[in-house]
Amino acid sequence: MKAGLTRRTFLQATTASAVAAAANLRCRPRPAFFSESEFETLGALCDRIIPPDGDPGALELGAPVYIERLLTAFDQDVPFLFAGGPFSGRHPFPDYRTGTPSRVFPTDQFRWPAPPSPIQERFWRAEIFGSVESGLPPHLDAQAGGPRRGLRDVYREGLAAVDAAALAQGGRRFVELDEMERDDLLAQLAGPDGLPVDPVRDRSFLDLVIQHTLEGCFSAPEYGGNRAGEGWRMIGLEGDSQPLGYSLFSEPDAEYRERPDHPMSTPNPDEVAPDGSLAPRPLTPEGDQVQVTISFFAQIVERFVPGACT
Amino acid sequence: MSGGWGWRGGNGLGSGPAEVFGNARLSRFDFCIIGSGAGGASAAHVLCAAGHSVLVLEAGHNPFPGIDRRGPLRSTLHGNDELKYGMRSYLDPQGLLDPRTYRQLDDAEAAVHPDVNALPKAVGGAWQHADCKTPRFAVADFELRSRIEALIGATPGLAVPGFGSDAGSANFADWPISYSELEPFYVEAERLYGVQGAEDNPFQSWRSEPYPMPPGVPMYLGRLLAEGAEQTEFFGEPLHPHAFPASITSRFYEGRPPCVDCGFCAGFGCPNNAKGSPAVTTLRSALLSGRCQLRANAAAVELVNDGGHVSAVRYADGDGAIQEVAADAFLLAASAIESARLCWLSATPDGDALGNGSGQVGRNLMFHHQTLVNGFVPQRIHGQRGRAVSHGISDFRGFEPGGEAIRVFTEGGAKRVRLGGIIEFGGSQGLPIEQDGMVMAFSLPRGTVPRFGLGFKNALRDGALTQHLLALIMQGEDAPQLGNRVDLDPSVRDVHGVPVPRVTYRPHNYEIGARRFYVPYMKQILANAGADRIFTAPCETLLGDPPTSRHVMGTLRMGSDPATSVVGPDGRFHDVDNLYACDGSVFPTSGGWNPTLTIFANALRVAHGLAG
């Protein structure tokens, strides 16, 4: 059975919405934190971390918008740190009479934040505005190795540092460099003589942008990135699936039915050959390298700490 | 920016510092339970049903608004949301405000560590983030010490780390109750929390009642590993894969729908309440009784006592203000580390920890020794569909079928016992941020794999980790040791200014030996399942880090002898006439099984004893 979507059909299905999304980039929702030029630099940076090819890059997916939403989470009455629940409205309820999807969709409750607890709110205020600025008890900072700088300041200064590095090299801002020059500068900033590592977070500015770019590409779209779920589709994931899920219970015969397009107990249909044998899609050299590295890493650890990995 | 303690003023959240659920008018309490998780909610259910008035204090927030309202169960704030749980810790405590310290040896200085086995802090406790695996302990687990000592006496040449001539290196003890005494409460727990399972595990001990529900749909990765296990020979026999019991619905069950296998299971809250979280089962029934009041964002900081009696509990509310509330009796159910911490925070008039006449408070801290053996398969195993784990094997617990006798292996003429634990058949869960991106960008040595650019994107699209990893996880029994313990850190304080738990822990040869023995068989299972690039994940405790099992036991040992245990068989502190413990802290040994069903069952047993 070949009912599953291949990467190619994903692409065809999403091209139209991707174009629309790119057109929308300019109308970013208020309240904004970044200046136009900071936002441009940030977008260019994210877009070299996950660059566009046949699939959208981080800019098109909305990673910079995601980051700005994080930094302005407290601009709302209930800060948007945790999406609400239980459902996003992207998937219907199951029909228990037949064990098939119903036509009834829940509303998108991810859009309304789940209120943070008092403790969570204190942590996130410290994270975004800084521990000193948010009035965190000083002993917590001392125990954590120093005051926590607010992400708003880290981003403002980090983006300026990236542009300063670009200007120092060729008299042009980061966004004025071509792709290859941007990649070279990024490699330099990631290197030992690049951006300094903040010991409290154990992250450099670039590290933070990498983390937040990942979050912005693959978190639920309600957080501001992963435009229309294209980040998930690009990597062959379905994202959230409730309330439908994958196992549909049929009450009349008290049995579960699986979804042919997304089976639970059998291989993905797009990796099964017509004769029923497995036909796995080969990994790219980089994916292969990740697996080899992890497997090999365990052997290295074993050499230094005998028994740790046996 | 507002600062200091006034930080919360006028932000419009509306919930205020004290979030009260259930009967807000109650002001006199027969019982106050500290912790609303597995142990506390089970006890609250029994005590309220018996007509007692109960106050439950919960340090965390409430992701289940409306659980105290009659009618159909309302929806939760949980969702299929990797960012919310994995990256932003919606349920887990934040280490900056709620730190713990760790060291391996007594003479070392403990350091703040970002994760000393931190369990979620929220209404309903840690069970809501678990994938709710519910094996029972077996008959032999309750009498491990006497059975192994008897075996050593009867078997020339048999040596077991922590037993016989090596007994001083560990602190094993029999439970003061038997499997037969606990069995009716296992039945009650399986019914209350809604357990699915099949009677296909030959190593399980006898059951007086069938599972309330049959197993749900098997996962593809579970089927692959089950086939691999069936082809693996272990002392002349193939291994015995079985359905993994779990308190997850596979039918409509007491107002909750069947699980849809959405995949956001281990580490996530359940959006449709298919998981039997205490919040939507026992705690809810207590709240609906009209005799229960739940206060969320209420972190207990001291039991007011005269050494032999507790009169009140002090807690920090959401604003950090200290409140005090009285009750006739108190039950500790804050999980092993926090319950022991509270005893240390509640000094007696002579300056000792509360209930510490035996000197055992905080000692015998156990985690399961988790051994992870992994391998990669070429096809995508789509672990994002399922309940995280649908199959396992119990052969490596090291018991005979039926779980009544300890197995004696003959290896090259020598007699050995090998006590490991149940194995979960797991793998990639399809979480792109944590399991692919963050690992590539931050966990692997710099320069080995791309951290950005097209190569990074390629590996993400491959799902190199999130789609191709098969994993076996053994919940190896962890030996109780006097030196493995919880006390208070001398200098580190939490956000309320209260001393934090200091954990001292190092593994014992008992579990290391079992790990080394079973790893080659685990590798064989993976190879037989078609995996390649097989490796054992670094053991965190051997690298000097705390265990990350999320199974925390011991610290307030249950036993009949006041000289060697903290609480009696009825759960009451030997030294304190109205203080009880009913969480994992009372476990004398850790078994080789996921512990929560046993926490449920023992808490039900203790509460029935109290309810009269």
* Main CATH class of chain B: Alpha Beta
- The helix/strand class of chain B is alpha+beta
| Biggest beta-sheet profile of chain B | 6 strands, mixed
Structural class of chain A: mainly alpha
Number of DSSP-assigned strands of chain B? 25
Query: Helix proportion of residues of chain B, in percent?
Result: 10-25%
Number of strands of chain A: 6
Shape of chain B: globular
Low-confidence stretches of chain A: 1-26
This entry's quaternary arrangement is heterodimer
Number of helices of chain B: 11
By CATH's scheme, which homologous superfamily of chain B applies? FAD/NAD(P)-binding domain
Low-confidence stretches of chain B: 1-16
Strand ordering within the main sheet of chain A: 1-2
Report mean pLDDT of chain A, rounded to a whole number.
Answer: 91
- List the chains of the largest interface with their residue counts: A-B, 113 and 117 residues
What would you note in describing this structure?
The complex is a heterodimer of chains A (310) and B (612). The longest helix of chain A has 20 residues. Chain A folds into two domains: 273 residues, no CATH class; 29 residues. In chain A, a hairpin with a 4-residue loop joins strand 3 and strand 4. Chain A is mainly alpha-helical and 310 residues long. In chain A, the strands form three sheets. Chain A has a two-stranded antiparallel sheet. In chain A, strands 3-4 form a two-stranded antiparallel sheet. Chain A has a two-stranded antiparallel sheet with strand order 5-6. The N terminus of chain A is likely disordered. By secondary structure, chain B is an alpha+beta fold. Chain B has a single domain, classed as FAD/NAD(P)-binding domain. Helix content of chain B is 21%, strand content 18%. Chain B contains eleven helices and 25 strands. Chain B has a six-stranded mixed sheet with strand order 1-9-3-2-13-25, with helices on one face. In chain B, a hairpin with a 2-residue loop joins strand 6 and strand 7. In chain B, helix 1 packs parallel to helix 6. At the A-B interface, helix 5, helix 6, helix 8, helix 9 and helix 10 of A face helix 2, helix 8, helix 9, helix 10 and strand 23 of B.
